[in-house]
């Protein structure tokens, strides 16, 4: 009898231990970001400025009580990482990439999935030439980026600064221009593709050969030319608006010109396909359109997409819409890699 009782006691104890272990596993899943609900932590992939993304993450945690792990790297690095992680995704949300082009390509690569926050459900897909969200819900814009010209205000007056893309070919700018390398920078690839969509490839390659001849430097980084203008290494640089306004806010002699016709893009946020905490990811996407997040973006000189938040720069969504060119996204997707590959072959 003692032996049977001992066996029964051990059996009951074993069941109790298993039950306790199962409860711990369940609690751990909730704490670390299980698939049930949005209460667990989330992982954010972003190529945007680390200080900016960390500020957004901290505010989200303050408002929602959910921890955000930020994984920072360049856009191409993050995209390749998400491709490698297919079948076992590590991220829940991807924010930013210099505009919509990498996100458009990500749809075909099957690394992101559909979700549109309630705040954006009534948005038109394209408004005044600006694609605000994906037509099938694969991404939504969080802010506006404008491609244009930074200039050194100690070397160039606002009146003589270029106002169109053709103005850059004025001989007075020879040796005084910088722009990013289109073979490396998404910012500059956008410049090349948008010009060729409007003028054709033959005229486009002629234009960029002359622009290259006028440049004193063509760095790989999208922000380097604007920084070069601030340091007096160039008088004119091609880049996004916030790059110039951030330097201006820091006291640098830099200002920004919006060309008469130019690419105007949203910078999106999207849900990673099969991420470990999709509900938490959706909450973060909702948050990115909230006043709290939009005020942070505005404080970094990004143009907010939420009309209730005021832009901290001289330009806003309303004022920039008249400059936006209508981008043929299908053409861009079909030719993006080819044009980048052909840059080094066609430009001497």
UniProtKB/TrEMBL annotation:
InterPro entries: Ferric-bd. It comes from the Bacteria. CDD domains: PBP2_Fe3_thiamine_like. Residues 1-22 form the signal peptide. The keyword Metal-binding does not apply. Pfam families: SBP_bac_6. Keywords: Signal. This is Extracellular solute-binding protein. The lineage of its organism: Bacteria, Bacillati, Bacillota, Bacilli, Bacillales.
